[in-house]
Amino acid sequence: MVPFYRDGLGFDVLYRFADHDGFDGIMLGSRGAPYHLEFTKAHGHAAGRAPTQENLLIFYLPDLPDWQAAVDRMEAVGYSPVPAFNAYWDRHGRTFEDPDGYRIVLQNSAWGI
Q: Is 79 inside a domain boundary?
C-alpha cells in the first residue's frame, strides 16, 4: 500500500504507529496540507477489497505538465492505468487501482465548485 501512495502519488509518510489498541497504521499526505490519508490494519483481521470500481478518490491537476508528471511517476514505479468504470474519467484522466482495489483518478481538469 505504501509504495502506491508514497512512490506513485508522491505523498510523504507523515506518521506511523504500531499496535495501538491492536491496530498498525500509517498516515500519508502532503506536509502542511489540511488533510491526510490514514491506512490501518487490525491484527488478526484480513482487509477486504474495495466494494465497487466506482469508489474513487479524484485528484484534479489542471496544469498539463503537472498532470503528465503525476501519470508518468505512477507508471515509472510499476502502476498501469486501468479502464475507468465510468468512461467520463477516461476522457481527461487516468485511473489507477491501489493494492486493495480502491481507485485513484488523476484528472487533467480543474474542479470548478
A: yes
